[in-house]
């Protein structure tokens, strides 16, 4: 892409590379020390983001460097395809001593989003950022750039050391089962149907499901659970583990995600059953806490469900929320959708640590045991 948005004097720009992961992780540590991030990704976590399926490092990433070749800011832009509701999601950070790079990063993102979403239907083009609400300076900066707050999500945790939910007792004709290869497509269809009416949700194709779920190195198929009835998947709860973050924080945490029930089977307790099954499986595998993120304005009242299962909001930062912000660009009406950074979540609540367990990636075969790696 032509350099129509040069960096300020004293900096140069180039696309990010996979071998920048350690430098970007160090930059995140510096930002965290000043503003307090929900999570500080390590090199492996950054490399995972830069390796996202369908992601073009040359066009959709940028780093700003000083003459000594130190990375002082980065921007990563995820673009969604033009045949469906379309949006761009920006993740950007500048070193606390180089905040003058933030307008440059946002200008680059707007130009790239306008280019990437050029063929999108009118009224469907959107650009979004996710920002921790405790970061007052950053919130003001994006608001001054024309963004507005459109949605709030909260993050919740519970201990797995005691008071686990009871063994699930699903309704007649429904069975709670572990993730298994023959059910992969059924799980995708159930997820698409479950989230069809959720804010900013986009259905995943079989290829996208394979890339973003099954091939995700954080995914734990051995700890994920499905509800099956009448030969089809009707509810699901998936689990993931970031071993690098667990090791850096000294915790043994599992992350609960993609909890959904298809409309025809809602109000039958299936979401409770699959989440309870995942929590019990995680506790049995030696994990000592579980976390999840939830849309505070969800019409399904998911927050109440998770509270009944023992989850509570962050105790030391009761106001900590991620605030998606959307900017309407001159040539497009931009609205946000599903985040591609589900694992950017707080690790600051210190529950009793447990054994640090290896992850197991999703293979198209039998699920691995929790301790087999």
Describe this structure as you would to a colleague:
This protein is of the alpha+beta class and 373 residues long. The chain has two domains: 12-125, Aminopeptidase (3-Layer(aba) Sandwich); 155-322, Aminopeptidase, CATH 3.40.630.30. The protein is built from ten helices and 14 strands. The protein has helices spanning 21-35, 43-50, 57-60, 102-116, 136-144, 184-194, 206-214, 243-249, 270-284, 302-308; strands at residues 12-14, 61-65, 71-79, 88-94, 127-132, 147-149, 153-159, 174-178, 225-229, 232-240, 253-261, 289-295, 312-313, 322-327. The protein has a seven-stranded mixed β-sheet with strand order 1-2-3-4-5-14-6, sandwiched between helices. A seven-stranded mixed β-sheet has the order 8-9-10-11-12-7-13. Helix 1 crosses helix 2. The protein is globular. The model is unreliable at 315-322 and 328-373 (pLDDT under 50).
Top CATH class of the largest domain: Alpha Beta
The pLDDT mean sits at 81
Major sheet: size, sense and barrel closure? Answer: 7 strands, mixed
The CATH architecture of the largest domain would be 3-Layer(aba) Sandwich
Point out poorly predicted stretches.
315-322, 328-373
Strand content: 15-25%
Q: C-alpha Rg, in Å?
A: 21 Å
| Whole-number count of domains | 2
* Strand line-up of the largest beta sheet: 1-2-3-4-5-14-6
CATH superfamily of the largest domain: Gcn5-related N-acetyltransferase (GNAT)
What helical percentage do the residues reach? 25-40%
Number of helices: 10
Label the structural class: alpha+beta
Report the strand count.
14
The end-to-end span amounts to: 41 Å
- Elements, N to C (H/E): EHHHEEEHEHEEEHHEEHEHEHEE
Shape: globular
């Amino acid at each position: 892409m032509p350099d129509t948005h040069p960096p300020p004097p004293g900096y140069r720009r180039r696309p990010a590379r996979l071998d920048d992961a350690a430098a970007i992780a160090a930059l995140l540590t510096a930002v965290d020390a000043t503003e307090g991030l929900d999570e500080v990704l390590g090199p492996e976590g950054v490399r995972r983001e830069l390796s996202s399926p369908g992601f073009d490092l040359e066009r959709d990433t940028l780093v700003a460097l000083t003459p000594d070749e130190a990375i002082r800011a980065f921007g990563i832009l995820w673009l969604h395809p033009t045949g469906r509701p379309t949006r761009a999601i920006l993740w950007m950070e500048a070193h606390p001593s180089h905040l003058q790079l933030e307008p440059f990063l946002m200008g680059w993102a707007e130009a790239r989003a306008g280019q990437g979403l050029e063929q999108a239907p009118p009224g469907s083009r959107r650009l979004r950022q996710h920002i921790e609400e405790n970061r007052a300076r950053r919130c003001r900066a994006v608001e001054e750039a024309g963004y507005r707050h459109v949605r709030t999500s909260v993050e919740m945790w519970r201990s797995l050391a005691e008071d686990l939910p009871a063994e699930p007792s699903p309704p007649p004709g429904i069975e709670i089962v572990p993730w298994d290869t023959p059910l992969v497509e059924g799980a995708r269809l159930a997820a698409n149907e479950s989230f069809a009416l959720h804010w900013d949700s986009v259905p995943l194709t079989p290829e996208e499901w394979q890339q973003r779920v099954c091939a995700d190195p954080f995914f734990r198929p051995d700890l994920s659970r499905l509800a099956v009835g009448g030969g089809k998947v009707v509810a699901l709860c998936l689990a993931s583990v970031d071993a690098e973050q667990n090791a850096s924080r000294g915790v043994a945490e599992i992350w609960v995600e993609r909890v959904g029930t298809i409309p025809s089977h809602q109000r039958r307790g299936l979401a409770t059953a699959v989440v309870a099954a995942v929590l019990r499986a995680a506790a049995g595998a030696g994990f000592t806490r579980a976390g999840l993120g939830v849309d505070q304005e969800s019409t399904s009242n998911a927050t109440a469900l998770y509270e009944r299962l023992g989850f509570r909001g962050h105790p030391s930062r009761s106001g900590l929320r991620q605030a998606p912000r959307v900017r309407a660009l001159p040539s497009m009406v931009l609205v946000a959708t599903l985040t591609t950074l589900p694992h950017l979540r707080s690790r600051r609540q210190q529950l009793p640590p447990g054994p640090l367990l290896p992850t197991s990636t999703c293979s198209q075969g039998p699920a691995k045991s929790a301790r087999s790696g």
